[in-house]
Q: What sequence folds into this?
């Protein structure tokens, strides 16, 4: 049975969109959780942004430390380390791109190609933070591979598998927008048209694979998208 961490109960922290956190896997070195959409990965600035996945997990696993993050409105698999040494080893895997991640997204429109890649450098859009933007001169390299899984003519949306080869902030969201197919439910980049047909961002981290930092065994986890 998966371990479940219930939603926050403190009135000033709880949000209607929050759901219980499922601990998909836990051992003495790593912890893999499934983050609900609408919940921060780590604390933000301000009292209203203190409820987050890392703090809920640490309430039961005090040595759990952050290794990477998911956007607040993205759901799916998130990896944490048990203690600073395991955090160092896992962080090295991320830095050396030895961690495999796959996302599922629903985007507006029908793509011309069945698969491809988006190789566009990204930079913070400082006057419009937290937005990011494509910047061909000063941006940092960002590469996303995609595969079309299906097209729904009734909603004019496509279902995509996304593999980020780099880990820039909002990379998948900005890359799909630049391609002309914003992710459905993306209020920040897609505007009112994108949120008219979904109550949340339709982006989910569905697969995660990495080497166990203690045993070096290759581990694979999958969390089906809830949409």
A:
């Amino acid at each position: 049975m998966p371990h479940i961490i219930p939603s926050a109960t403190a009135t000033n922290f709880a949000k209607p969109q929050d759901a219980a956190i499922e601990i998909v896997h836990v051992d003495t070195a790593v912890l893999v959780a499934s983050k609900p959409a609408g919940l921060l990965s780590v604390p933000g600035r301000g009292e209203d942004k203190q409820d987050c996945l890392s703090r809920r997990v640490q309430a039961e696993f005090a040595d759990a430390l952050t290794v990477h993050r998911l956007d607040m409105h993205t759901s799916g698999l998130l990896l944490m380390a048990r203690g600073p040494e395991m955090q160092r080893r896992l962080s090295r895997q991320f830095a050396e791109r030895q961690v495999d991640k796959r996302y599922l997204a629903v985007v507006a429109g029908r793509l011309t190609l069945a698969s491809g890649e988006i190789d566009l450098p990204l930079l913070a859009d400082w006057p419009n933070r937290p937005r990011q933007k494509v910047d061909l001169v000063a941006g940092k390299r960002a590469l996303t591979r995609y595969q079309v899984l299906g097209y729904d003519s009734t909603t004019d949306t496509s279902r995509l598998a996304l593999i980020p080869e780099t880990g820039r902030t909002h990379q998948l969201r900005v890359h799909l927008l630049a391609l002309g197919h914003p992710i459905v439910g993306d209020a920040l980049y897609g505007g009112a048209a994108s949120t008219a047909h979904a109550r949340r961002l339709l982006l989910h981290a569905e697969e995660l694979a990495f080497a166990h930092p203690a045993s070096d065994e290759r581990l694979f986890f999958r969390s089906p998208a809830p949409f």
The chain has four helices and 13 strands.
